[in-house]
Amino acid sequence: MAAVPTPPPPTEELTAPFLKMTTSSLHEEASMGVIAGVITLVFITLLAVLVVIIMYLYKNKGSYHTYEEPEADGSVQLENLPSKGEKEEYFI
């Protein structure tokens, strides 16, 4: 009986690139987890800062104080306005 010769092992050229299976190491998976955690933390921090800014602007909306005395003739200006029955004349 004669020995049957074994075929040569397949070379890289004969295999398709999509058939190659790459397994990621534990180190690569841990790095991806750390990166995802940092991105999530930054996003949550920015969102919290935005909420704080919106709350501050909402509470302080239109609240400014002047230390000047109010003018006395302000009420006189309101009295000089025409009433609803009178027509105003506009020049264009």
Automatic annotation (TrEMBL):
Keywords: Cell membrane, Cytoplasmic vesicle, Membrane, Transmembrane, Transmembrane helix. It is a single-pass type III membrane protein. The keyword Ribosomal protein does not apply. InterPro entries: SMAGP. The chain crosses the membrane at residues 34-58. It comes from the Eukaryota. GO terms for cellular component: cytoplasmic vesicle membrane; plasma membrane. Its main location: membrane. The keyword Membrane applies. It is found in: Cell membrane; Cytoplasmic vesicle membrane. Belongs to the SMAGP family. This is Small cell adhesion glycoprotein. It comes from Pelusios castaneus. The lineage of its organism: Eukaryota, Metazoa, Chordata, Craniata, Vertebrata.
